């Protein structure tokens, strides 16, 4: 993954934020919308593209474009910084390959302990019965 190349491929657009805020929200475009074309990227190898496409399928559009929004701050510049930071974090975490789980045997001592506890529980129940003379 070539970060500099990827950062040059993203497009950030400023749009008007929604929600409460009155006059300020209605006249200032402070929301940052980041778009990144995953399939056309030159900063990612084909294996990385396939892995990201698999892991982030729900976040991608049908054309394979990733869209991220940020309207947390009143400042357009701060929203751009936040959305870029979020984008890079998203790429790094989704590029990690999970370790394959190795199946392990249950220790014999654990099996013995479980059977002994079952036996003890059964005896406890037997002692609660009325004695048979």
From TrEMBL:
<protein>
    <submittedName>
        <fullName>Aminoacyl-tRNA hydrolase</fullName>
    </submittedName>
</protein>
<dbReference type="InterPro" id="IPR045853">
    <property type="entry name" value="Pep_chain_release_fac_I_sf"/>
</dbReference>
<dbReference type="Pfam" id="PF00472">
    <property type="entry name" value="RF-1"/>
</dbReference>
<feature type="compositionally biased region" description="Basic and acidic residues">
    <location>
        <begin position="117"/>
        <end position="133"/>
    </location>
</feature>
<keyword id="KW-0378">Hydrolase</keyword>
<feature type="region of interest" description="Disordered">
    <location>
        <begin position="112"/>
        <end position="133"/>
    </location>
</feature>
<feature type="domain" description="Prokaryotic-type class I peptide chain release factors">
    <location>
        <begin position="8"/>
        <end position="122"/>
    </location>
</feature>
<dbReference type="GO" id="GO:0004045">
    <property type="term" value="F:peptidyl-tRNA hydrolase activity"/>
</dbReference>
<dbReference type="GO" id="GO:0003747">
    <property type="term" value="F:translation release factor activity"/>
</dbReference>
<dbReference type="InterPro" id="IPR000352">
    <property type="entry name" value="Pep_chain_release_fac_I"/>
</dbReference>
<comment type="similarity">
    <text>Belongs to the prokaryotic/mitochondrial release factor family.</text>
</comment>
<dbReference type="GO" id="GO:0072344">
    <property type="term" value="P:rescue of stalled ribosome"/>
</dbReference>
<dbReference type="GO" id="GO:0043022">
    <property type="term" value="F:ribosome binding"/>
</dbReference>
